Amino acid sequence: MDRPPSAHRNARKSNRPSRAKSIRSGGKWKRYRKGARMRCSGACALCVMERPGERPREAVDVHHIERLSDRPDLAYNPHNTVPLCKECHERITTMENSGDLAGAKSIFDGWLSIIEDSDYA
Whole-model pTM? Predict the structure, then answer.
């Protein structure tokens, strides 16, 4: 028995890599990611913002403020990417996955100006 046309179309789509996955697996992203992680002298932007005066953790991830799956056109935009340590990245991702997209985004309001005014610019 054949599948209905709509189910067949959806099955084909699921076999294609998503745009976000294609970006993350490319050489351009790997080069961008390396530079983006060094934007705060290799420090986590949230640690710098939330714990001034303390030694921040090392940035090992780069987070997209506007989700890459929603806005692939902002993949390489420095105003949309933030260097984060593993702990802060997990905290933000958990907020987003629980549906608190606005709360997660608001954490980064003005992050570039805060970082530029810090010792980690």
Answer: 0.76
